[in-house]
Amino acid sequence: ALGCQTTHSNQEVLQSCSLVIFATKPHVLPAVLAEVAPVVTAEHILVSVAAGVSLSVLEEEGAMVMARGRHARSSETKLLQDLLEACGWCEEVPEAYMDVHTGLSGSGVAFVCVFSEALAEGAIKMGMPSGLAHRIAAQTLLGTAKMLLQEGQHPAQLRTDVCTPAGTTIHGLHALEQGGLRAATMSAVEAATCRAKELSRK
Amino acid sequence: ALGCQTTHSNQEVLQSCSLVIFATKPHVLPAVLAEVAPVVTAEHILVSVAAGVSLSVLEELLPPNAQVLRVSPNLPCVVQEGAMVMARGRHARSSETKLLQDLLEACGWCEEVPEAYMDVHTGLSGSGVAFVCVFSEALAEGAIKMGMPSGLAHRIAAQTLLGTAKMLLQEGQHPAQLRTDVCTPAGTTIHGLHALEQGGLRAATMSAVEAATCRAKELSRK
Question: Which residues of chain B neighbour A102 with C-beta distances below 8 Å?
Answer without folding.
Answer: 188
